[in-house]
Amino acid sequence: MTSMPASERLGSHLKRAEQALNATKHAVLKPAGLTVPQYAALLQLSEHPGISAAALARACMVTPPTMNTLLKNLQERGLIERTPHEWHKNVLETRLTERGQEVLADADARAVRVERGLSAEFGEEERERLVALLGRCVDYLESVRPR
């Protein structure tokens, strides 16, 4: 068996970058009263009003049970409302409340500062290259993942 030092493993570098991003977003979102997953859900809801919990879970890359817990919490806080779909009564449509829109606006301003700051660390060509390289990582990993 051949060993590979951690410093040469791209996965460990990707994980460190992801952890640093999540930890920073967690810290900047805390004063807004949101976790990173809650923020992600509110952001998706703002862009896709009425989206189902299952579709929202996929968009936020969490399991459906995790999303249901998250939505219950957001609903109890008055940030979202869930109403039966007009035709599919067993499907709940989820939308932001006015309060949810206010909380999201505050949180999004905080998150955008992080994203803009990170983006500013790279020139335009570097950003485009980084996005392309990360896309190649995803493509490769999805192609070799056992089904």
Offer a quick outline of the entry:
By secondary structure, the chain is mainly alpha-helical. It is built from six helices and two strands; from the N terminus they run ααααββαα.
Q: Can you walk me through this structure?
A:
There is one protein chain. The chain is 66% helix and 7% strand. With 147 residues, it is mainly alpha-helical. It has a two-stranded antiparallel sheet. Strand 1 (80-84) and strand 2 (92-96) form a beta hairpin. The longest helix has 23 residues, at 98-120.
Global Rg: 18 Å
Q: What oligomeric state best describes the polypeptide chains here?
A: single chain
Whole-number average pLDDT? 93
Strand order of the largest sheet: 1-2
Uncertain stretches: none
Structural class by helix and strand composition: mainly alpha
User: How much strand content do the residues show?
Assistant: 5-15%
Q: First CA to last CA: what distance?
A: 25 Å
Shape: globular
Proportion of helical residues: 55-70%
Strand segment tally: 2
SS field, number of helical segments: 6
Largest sheet: 2 strands, antiparallel
> How are helices and strands ordered from N to C?
HHHHEEHH
Lay out the secondary structure.
Blueprint lengths: L9 H20 L6 H12 L5 H8 L3 H13 L3 E5 L7 E5 L1 H23 L3 H21 L3
Antiparallel strand pairs: 1-2
